[in-house]
Amino acid sequence: MTFELVTVPCLEDNYAFIVHEAETNTTLLVDVPEADPIRAALSERGWTLTHVLFTHHHWDHVDGWNDLRKTHSAITIGAQADEYRLPALDMAINDGDTIQIGSEICQVFDVSGHTVGHIAVYMPTAKIVFTADSIMALGCGRLFEGTPAQMWESLCKLMSLPKDTLVCSGHEYTTGNAKFAITVDPDNIALRSRMDEIQEKRAKNIPTIPSLLSEELATNPFLRADDHNIRKTLGMLDESDAQVFARIRQLKDNF
Ligand code: FE
Ligand code: ZN
């Protein structure tokens, strides 16, 4: 079975994702920042929406549904923990659940930190994970509701996925994230060459999302709390990974 993945830029810097499987006539939308670009992406391809997944309750990930549902219907899926603050759900899901989307048995992860109740969904055959505001390209979501320890635990779950997994995150924040990353990981050659690629893409208005998990593991400082050079730069050779992560998050908040 083959899945087609479409990245849909929405609002200022949000992304929605559409995954389509022709054989089963399945079309999954992940997050609904706004209706019109998603409508256009679907109608261009002649795809009929079947499922909508909400990663977390923030308005810029769900508010477009009220408009989109006027013209499209779908099975709505979101975290049971967030059911009270998400649009009406047909499927309320939890960490460790599996859900079938077309021919794919997807795995559900609680990735609390940015919000409590944020979920990520992993498609093992398609090799795609929808991370929204947990792992982001060269970054991670700000901690609005969860603790650093919670976010670190969430990131660790995603870091253990196969390295060739495509990471579909929620925002085009990569240029700003890169400027910060190089301050805590200045000698990282892979980061420097990725920064050049990012600059080239953004100059042509090409999304830097999705990215490969292998790239994130090599260059995203939020996933590299165990890295000796980063620890040396921060003067934190003996602290735990979670403590180093917390410091990196704090430095980014004040960057
Ligand atoms: Fe958010
Ligand atoms: Zn967001």
CATH C-level class is Alpha Beta
Query: What's the number of helices?
Result: 9
**β-strand amount:** 15-25%
CATH topology: Metallo-beta-lactamase, Chain A
* Radius of gyration, whole Å: 18 Å
Number of domains as seen in the coordinates: 1
How many strands appear in the DSSP assignment?
Answer: 14
- How would you spell out the order of helices and strands? EEEHEHHEEEEEEEEHEHHEHHH
Percent in helix: 25-40%
Arithmetic mean of pLDDT: 98
Major sheet summary line: 6 strands, mixed
CA-based shape: globular
Assign the structural class, choosing from mainly alpha, mainly beta, alpha/beta, alpha+beta, or little secondary structure: alpha/beta
N-C termini distance: 44 Å
Ions, cofactors and other bound molecules: fe (iii) ion, zinc ion
The fourth-level CATH homologous superfamily is Ribonuclease Z/Hydroxyacylglutathione hydrolase-like
Low-confidence stretches: none
Second-tier CATH architecture = 4-Layer Sandwich
